[in-house]
């Protein structure tokens, strides 16, 4: 935030203070409204007799966590999720970094149309193409395979990742590379030894952003994976529903907290590292 | 940094190819998994393809589309989709996001930090979890009714009485952070001097906002509207978790409708035709926003 220049006359200072008070009040009201829905999940997770209504945990207990922390309910879905989203993020990053290099370094009459297509593809409603993707996966025998799901998840994240990575790469001065070229390095060597080390912070932003997106994605694995032992955490959360008749709300809440944890922790890491509003605003300037 | 070189056109073309080579993995993936399905969509939407597999698929022309545009169910789903998109994205997320971004500029550091943490927290939570939170929040004995009861206001089961409004509220809660971050970034680039000058000229807060600040970020607004519209058109997990499209279809938006037709009723051809309509709807919205942006360019 920039420091506001000194304001001229006194009445304005008074009005500024009143304005700030009103702004703070408005912010707190909105913040309160945003927090209320979250109260239930925290209260219910520690409640031995949780239902849908919010109540102070009675008795206070870790039983819900104890009940869900087993291979079947938590560890395997989490591991599956890690495999799918980690694998997807890896594929996305490799594809995005390689693609960003020529887009950032060479001018060609193909660059602009390509980038516009990429930008358009970032907005493609993935939900709309899941039906044909299912049909395609059945035909080429990729349905219910981790590999197929990883590849599709990676591809769905590619357009925005390429876009962001290219923007970050544009920030690395080309002069450094020219020196390397003079010394006989190939473009790929320059990319590996000069650009990548310099744009490490930017790449971690893109990678974390991609991972969080995939981790929360429910529809893609829901459609593409069928066998229970391959389902990631986002889909297996539905096992708390119906299967045994009644929903065990306390356990559902405990599981929700555990499942949300990686995304929240990664975001906190990102925010700390880059001071909050990380620079995807730049990509949306239009 | 292009240097003008006189080269044989052939050599030049080869150089372009070699240079473009690193694009190959990403391009191949996108061709296979994004363009492929879209083309497949275009094909199967004109067939009577069914999931049951057994019989062969035959070409049925525009039959699926005729069925879509004459069905009441589609009309309702389209209506719900438009309501959901306009209320939760174009009005809700957009206005609240701008309000928060503006208010944060005026507010103190503590309030700013607390509110952005909470709002972004709602965004970072996986959509299924957000769905459960709202399921509990709006339920018959949920916090909202507890609060209303405490205030002696009438309570009701929101997911039954107003399901589409309920899921729209949940989507505002979940998606506002995106607009807030985008607008905060854009507003931080508006020079304070210009706003100060407007204040000196006697413009009030509202007047300054409407005539100075907002016009300066209007391009960001159009782009952000396009992005959140497309995101909201394809929301599935949130609605599915909260209502499964019910009760009796009263929150079935197009993505849920297509899913039900294709996977639960095994009408793959009909489902892909619906998906195509959804894509087209996204295309129409994009064209409108791009048109607005282009008009802008023309004016300047």
UniProtKB/TrEMBL annotation, chain A:
Q: Does the record bear Membrane in its keywords?
A: yes
List keywords of the entry alphabetically.
Answer: Cell membrane, Membrane, Transmembrane, Transmembrane helix, Transport
Where does the secretion signal sit in this chain? none
Name the Pfam families on file.
BPD_transp_1
Gene3D superfamilies associated with the record: MetI-like
Q: Which biological process annotations from GO are given for this protein?
A: transmembrane transport
Q: Which residues cross the membrane?
A: 21-46, 78-101, 113-134, 146-164, 198-227, 247-270
- Entry membrane topology: Multi-pass membrane protein
**GO CC annotations, alphabetized:** plasma membrane
* Name by which UniProt lists this protein: Carbohydrate ABC transporter permease
Compartments in which it is found: Cell membrane
Question: Its family?
Answer: Belongs to the binding-protein-dependent transport system permease family.
- Transport keyword on record: yes
InterPro entries reported in the protein's UniProt record: BP-dep_ABC_trans_perm, MetI-like, MetI-like_sf
List each copy of the ABC transmembrane type-1 domain by range: 78-270
């Amino acid at each position: 935030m920039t420091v506001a220049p000194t304001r001229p006359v006194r009445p304005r200072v008074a009005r500024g203070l009143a304005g700030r008070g009103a702004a703070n009040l408005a912010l707190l009201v909105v913040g309160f409204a945003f927090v209320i829905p979250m109260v239930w999940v925290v209260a219910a997770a520690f409640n031995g007799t949780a239902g849908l209504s919010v109540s102070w945990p009675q008795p206070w207990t870790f039983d819900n966590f104890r009940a869900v922390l087993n291979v079947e309910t938590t560890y395997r879905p989490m591991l599956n999720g890690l495999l799918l989203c980690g694998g997807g993020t890896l594929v996305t990053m490799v594809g995005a970094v390689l693609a960003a290099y020529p887009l950032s370094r060479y001018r060609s009459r193909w660059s602009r149309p390509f980038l516009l297509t990429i930008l358009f593809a970032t907005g493609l409603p993935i939900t709309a193409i899941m039906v044909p993707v299912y049909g395609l996966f059945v035909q080429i025998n990729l349905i219910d395979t981790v590999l197929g799901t990883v590849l599709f998840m990676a591809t769905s994240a590619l357009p925005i990742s390429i876009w962001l990575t290219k923007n970050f790469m544009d920030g690395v001065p080309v002069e450094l590379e020219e020196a390397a070229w003079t010394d006989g390095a190939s473009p790929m060597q320059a990319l590996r030894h000069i650009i990548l080390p310099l744009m490490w912070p930017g790449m971690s932003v893109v990678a974390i952003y991609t991972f969080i997106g995939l981790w929360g994605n429910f529809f893609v694995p829901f459609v593409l994976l069928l066998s229970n032992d391959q389902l990631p955490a986002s889909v297996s959360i539905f096992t708390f529903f119906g299967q045994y008749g009644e929903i065990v709300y306390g356990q559902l809440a405990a599981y929700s907290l555990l499942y949300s944890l990686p995304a929240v922790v990664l975001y906190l890491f990102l925010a700390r590292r880059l001071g909050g509003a990380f620079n995807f605003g730049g990509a949306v300037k239009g | 940094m292009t240097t003008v070189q006189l080269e044989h056109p052939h050599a030049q073309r080869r150089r372009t190819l070699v240079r473009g080579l690193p694009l190959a993995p990403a391009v191949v993936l996108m061709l296979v998994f994004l363009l492929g399905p879209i083309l497949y969509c275009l094909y199967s939407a004109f067939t009577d393809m069914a999931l049951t597999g057994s019989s062969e698929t035959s070409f049925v022309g525009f039959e699926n589309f005729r069925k879509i545009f004459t069905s009441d169910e589609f009309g309702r789903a389209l209506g719900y989709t438009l309501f959901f998109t306009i209320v939760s994205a174009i009005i809700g997320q957009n206005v609240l996001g701008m309000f928060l971004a503006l208010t944060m500029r005026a507010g103190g550091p503590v309030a700013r930090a607390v509110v952005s943490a909470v709002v972004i927290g709602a965004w970072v939570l996986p959509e299924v979890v957000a769905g459960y939170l709202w399921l509990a929040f709006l339920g018959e004995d949920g916090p909202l009714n507890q609060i209303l009861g405490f205030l002696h206001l009438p309570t009701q089961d929101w997911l039954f009485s107003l399901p589409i409004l309920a899921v729209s509220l949940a989507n505002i809660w979940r998606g506002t952070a995106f607009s807030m971050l985008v607008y905060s970034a854009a507003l931080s680039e508006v020079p304070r001097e210009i706003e100060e000058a407007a204040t000196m000229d006697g413009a009030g807060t509202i007047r300054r906002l409407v005539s100075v600040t907002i016009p300066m970020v209007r391009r960001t607004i159009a782009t952000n509207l396009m992005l959140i519209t497309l995101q909201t058109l394809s929301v599935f997990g949130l609605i599915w978790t909260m209502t499964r499209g019910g009760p009796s279809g009263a929150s079935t938006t197009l993505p849920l409708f297509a899913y039900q037709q294709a996977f639960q009723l095994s009408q793959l051809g009909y489902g892909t035709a619906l998906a195509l309509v959804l894509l087209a709807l996204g295309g129409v919205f994009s064209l409108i926003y791009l048109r607005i942006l282009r008009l802008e360019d023309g004016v300047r």
